[in-house]
Amino acid sequence: MDTYADKNYRLLFDTEGEWYCNDARTIEPERMPDFDLLCAGFPCQAFSIAGKREGFADARGTLFFEIARILEAKRPSYFILENVPGLLSHDKGRTFCTILSTLSELGYHVEWKVLNSKDFGVPQARKRVYIVGYFDFRCAADRKSIILLSGRSELKMGNKVLKNRILVWNDEFDGEKLDLNKWEFSQSMSNSDVLYDNGEKNFRIDNGTLLMRVNRTDSSEKPFTLSQGLTTKNKMGFRYGYLEMRAAVPFRHGAWPSFWAMSFPRLHSRDIGWGAEVDIFEVFSNENTLFPNLHKHGPNREHFMIQDEQNPNRSGGYRFADDKNPNDFHIYGFEWTKEHMSFFVDGECYHTYNLDDECEFAKTALKGLEGYREHLYLLINNEIFTENSGWKPVGSALNDSDALPIEYRIDYIRLYQDPENESIFTVGEE
Predict the structure, then answer these.
(1) Is the entire prediction scored with pTM above 0.90?
(2) For the chain, which residues make up each domain, given as ranges?
(3) Closest among 406, 389, 385 to 203, alpha carbons compared
């Protein structure tokens, strides 16, 4: 115990009537009064990037388990824990996985988010991860909880359980600027009506959210301005796992937002051209529907995709129910294994592609599945349809009456994998 901190606390605050113990390790839970909410912080030195990061090998790091001991004995309805953001990445996520597993075994549903004190009226920039737990699943926010068993995660996606996953890569967009260790700007589309500009008007990170916008210009030659897209092409690649994005996607006339992935051509044989494409979702103008699709591009720019409307493997897309606003924040998921690719909205699996070499669409529409079992990199775009778009659905082009900006907001992107069967690499290490 820090005796000076204890003394200062007693001088600054009225402690009359408080139940007090000067060492968490000596707490006898049966002597504690009952309570509904436990708020606790455990020493951060063992996990902070400013220290040696010895984790549970540091005695201070093990004090988390004293919190767990009290939770087990008293069973409060809720808890809030706080620590440094470095806790999330310590030991490649294994430490945080152990913490989540421990809390899950106690019966709690768990969520977490990195917050900065300056965003809440405090005159100090201080980032901390806050871990929230509750017994009653009805208390959940619009983030999905992760249930962990025996140190391994099970992601509950509706009636589907995704087993043996740990968090291996993520971006919570909680910094002041884009993390250039994870992303770079890209321009994959060509549109003579568009001026690409990554200035604050079109692109910024604001209070833990990535904002990508479409705006008007004063130019008749290029009437629209928007940010370039983002990609991990020269940063990160992954093979298999469960990928999740929480985002407010614009379902607006003229909008063409997307979240997709491409294979690395250099990792494949020359005969597949510039690779396989997986559209985790695309939105075409103001349709209340998003579409996942598989494409492949041959060496002579041949374009293969699932075109046959009668093919049962072709996606009919996902249409939001009338009582759901598609422009609100939703959770978009993508599960990829050697056998299939499955697509989710708010935990509901709405379509699965069978990655069977013998299935009809693999042999005909895609001319084989080369590239779909190799590493992919990610791309995000907030593109638009205009009169001079190279391609556009009928009636989708923006016009003067369309209200702008068109805004694509992303809260987080998280990748979970089973390290024994799935892989991720930093480009240059493959």
Answers:
(1) no
(2) 3-141, 184-426
(3) 406
